[in-house]
Amino acid sequence: MKKTLFILLTFYCSSVFSQTQTLTLGLNYPILVGNNFLKTNYTGIIDAEVKYFPYKLKKLKLGITTNIGLLTNSNDFISKFIVDNPNLTPVTVLLIKPGLTTEIEFGRFVPYAVLGYSFFNYMSKNMPTNEDSSNDGLNLILGLKYNLFEHFFVNANFDYTRFRLESEALDISYNKDIYLLKAGIGYRF
């Protein structure tokens, strides 16, 4: 993990001096899909993204990106468990997803891909201090932007994360394959 962060930081620092700078900001709504423990227990709140493209080769752009998202317990989860535990407080999941990105322009349509690493941090007032409160793993995002105007675009993507399992959790797809669909808007500088 430290090597991945070092490589991303090196890539970013080398790009600061590039002549072709492009920055995009986006806000998305994350929807959990598939058969996994997050879909069963959580619902999406928001996902914010920042993309920086220091390199451009004709219609192909190469850059770095970071997504930061929030999930919280679903109403079904809380209503099911609050009867047995009246002191239950919702768990919020903070998602941090740095990665390398590429996109190619086809007129107003811009397909893109991101390869990165995801960190999921679970936060709650009632979470025991000795409990593992995070998951992490490789991340792949495939998406499509549609340019509405010169600077504004709409965005949709499929976000897949494959968790590393170091705990006692069963090594099955339900515990390690996380799928998100995200849709939103963005602004390009």
What is the fold's blueprint, element by element?
Elements: H1 2-15, E1 22-33, H2 37-41, E2 42-57, E3 60-73, H3 75-81, E4 92-104, E5 109-123, E6 134-147, E7 152-163, H4 173-176, E8 177-188
Antiparallel strand pairs: 1-2, 1-8, 2-3, 3-4, 4-5, 5-6, 6-7, 7-8
Annotation keywords:
elongated, alpha+beta, 189 residues, 57% strand, 8-stranded antiparallel β-barrel
Structure description:
By secondary structure, the protein is an alpha+beta fold. The protein is 16% helix and 57% strand. The protein has an eight-stranded antiparallel barrel with strand order 1-2-3-4-5-6-7-8. Strand 4 and strand 5 (109-123) form a beta hairpin. The chain is elongated and about 60 Å long.
Would you kindly provide a brief summary of this structure?
This protein is α+β, with helices and mostly antiparallel strands and 189 residues long. The protein has one domain. The protein has 4 helices and 8 strands; from the N terminus they run H-E-H-E-E-H-E-E-E-E-H-E.
Average pLDDT, all residues:
85
Decide which structural class fits the backbone.
alpha+beta
Number of helices: 4
Alpha carbon gap, first and last residue: 31 Å
Shape: elongated
Please list the strands of the largest sheet in the order they lie side by side: 1-2-3-4-5-6-7-8
Strand content: over 45%
